[in-house]
Structure prediction request, 322 residues.
Amino acid sequence: MYFAVFFALLVGTGLTVFAATLDLGRFNAPVALGIATVKATLVALFFMHVWHASEKLTKLVVIAALFFLFLLLGLTMTDYATRPWS
Amino acid sequence: MPDSTVVGLHHEEHQHPELLHHFADAQQQRDASSLGMWVFLATEVMFFGGLFCAYLIYRRWYFGDFAAASKTINMGYGATNTAVLICSSLTVVLAVWAAQTARRTLLIGSLIVTMLLGVTFLGIKGIEYREKFVEHHVPGASFSFENEPIPGRPGQYANPSHAQIFFSLYFVMTGLHALHMIIGLGIFLWLLTMAWKGRFTPEYHTPVEIGGLYWHFVDIVWIYLFPLLYLIDRHP
Prediction:
């Protein structure tokens, strides 16, 4: 199990380097961030044992951390993206 | 009957000398420790989150300058370091598994290999920083970023003061990450001495587990830093 995740992470790293050399127009950044998110999720679920966490509170803390991160990034970026900065 | 209860209690305490009196059992104590580590990691998410937020704002504003600056840092070093950290995460889970199953040699070996990989990461980072100093790409009085073409826009050159913002973010984000690596190495040195003294058992190995959580978190931060800093626009 650990080795399968390990190889998936290495493949993901190779994939993200390869994807960066392609001209995907505006999709380069979403593809790179998508691969990074898949890798981070694998690390958290299997290496950090969130999947098999015996304590439900652990999952709650992980979700709360992500929620506040998206609040921080999401609200800031909607503000910057919609204001007429000159 | 009361006598046997007392004997039973003493027996229990003898089996788990690490069990603190305010926990019902070893499982509860483990869960409490790991929950505490997760709460700390949640604060770390916000700590790095502020930097990622600053990065996103400036990247939106000065995308061309950021792409030009990103192209001058060595993608090979970044990719190698990503692989090094992934390998170290594997040795960390092996260390935790070894502690759970009382494999002392594997535990000590995994901890040592993890630390060697961590030192390798910092060494490569050091070589990379050195190149930035040689190229005068370190923000400050001697910063120079003249006539660097913007990828995909022929005839246009990056604005040095905007590129300097990229390098400021690059050094702060990778520097803060490297600081976490150095702290991680300190934690693992301590884990190694504890493992050497035979302090970890299948009943008590919480330090290995939560030290591992910290190491994996630092790995996750790098998983995001690598594409964001090194791979903004790499196509020819």
Notes: The mean pLDDT of chain A is 89.
